Amino acid sequence: MILMKDIIREDNPALREVAKEVPLPLTQEDIDILNKMQEYLKNSQDPEISEKYGLRAGVGLAAPQINVLKRMFAVRLEDDNGKKYHYSLVNPKIISHSVEKSYLTSGEGCLSVDRPVVGYVLRHARITIKGYDINGNEIKLRLKDLPAIVFQHELDHLNGVMFYDHIDENNPFSVPEGAIPIER
Ligand code: SB7
Ligand code: NI
């Protein structure tokens, strides 16, 4: 199973690289990696298991965070209506997005960042994302609110981008006109 020691931190230059497209169909090795990433998220959200293994809770994990420079990530969260977003995505691409922006009022964190970073991370309020699931089937998702933010955070990892790259360093809490605040 994936543990905190397996997650690389921001001092590791691998997090700044652009990850490679994954050939389809997936190899058994890639399938195992994705399943382990999804398992990490599930374990990290279970109070007993996370306590036992010292896991930090996460709603997403991108392959580069375990030093696998491939374009794949896992997401596991529920929205306010209890709708589940459990996805393991390969070669994801944003095919369209809103002009409107949104941001989490509590800011963002990252399993690869062991320090608090304050400030608003402005993201597209709505995205349409295409990719492939673990079976190589094409997936197309329309996302808004927290799921849209999480998928963009994970996609950024595949491009060597960290959440704080989006924070205005001179004015970390500035909000552009019309941006939507999201509480969670
Ligand atoms: C806040 C947290 C996450 C995404 C968006 C807002 C995920 C944190 C876990 N990860 O580091 C995943 O890359
Ligand atoms: Ni992250």
Descriptive account of the structure:
One of its GO terms (biological process) is translation. InterPro entries: Peptide_deformylase, Peptide_deformylase_sf. This is Peptide deformylase. Its cofactor is Fe(2+). Removes the formyl group from the N-terminal Met of newly synthesized proteins. Requires at least a dipeptide for an efficient rate of reaction. N-terminal L-methionine is a prerequisite for activity but the enzyme has broad specificity at other positions. The model has no long low-confidence stretch (mean pLDDT 98). The chain has three helices and eight strands. The strands form two sheets. It has a five-stranded antiparallel sheet with strand order 1-2-3-6-7. The chain is globular. With 184 residues, it is of the alpha+beta class. It has helices at residues 28-44, 47-53, 145-158, and strands at 60-62, 72-78, 84-97, 101-104, 123-124, 126-132, 138-144, 180-182. The structure holds [hydroxy(3-phenylpropyl)amino]methanol and nickel (II) ion. Nickel (II) ion (NI) is lined by residues 110-112, 153, 157.
